[in-house]
Amino acid sequence: MSPLNIEKGSSKHSAYDLRDPHAERLERHTLAIIVDNESGVLARVIGLFSARGYNIDSLTVAEVDHEGHRSRITIVTTGTAQVIIQIKAQLERMVSTHEVHDLTTEGPSVERELALFKVAGKGEPRIEALRLAEIFRANVVDSTLESFVFEMTGTPEKVDAFAELMRPLGLREVARTGVAALSRGQ
Length: 186
What we know:
Layout: E1 27-36, H1 41-51, E2 56-65, E3 70-79, H2 81-93, E4 97-102, E5 109-120, H3 124-135, E6 139-143, E7 147-154, H4 156-166, E8 171-176, E9 180-183
Antiparallel strand pairs: 1-3, 1-4, 2-3, 5-7, 5-8, 5-9, 6-7
Subunit structure: Dimer of large and small chains.
Family: Belongs to the acetolactate synthase small subunit family.
Protein name: Acetolactate synthase small subunit
């Protein structure tokens, strides 16, 4: 039997499967970090990621406690389970960090993103863009004779799906806020 012939029911992998069977699986995690609202904190958090070659898929920051001078940083990142554990441990060691929550592992959570889409078009593509916007519950926030700006909130997957459908209809520009997330319940 040649190496490319795999018997039916064999426990061997396909010759066409080039994935390393020993490689760890990449996981997407949403981290919520409560930090002091002071200059340089965000730069240190981002520096932690960039110095180790970790990618940030989404980043949102806002002050959440004016009197306590605290901000919430929400980061969506992807890595192996070991990399995620390491990221959380390093964030927790930062002096300005008060809390680190992995919303992906702590239970059910809600994620939303706000996005603006500029779509240019006339005639049938323009009508189709309006029809799809209605289906996705996107609001028209600006309109000219040649373009629309749609506003939509939803999961990152919903935002991606809407963008893909708008692309052939004249999508010109997209602005996204990044993920805002909260755990559900108490």
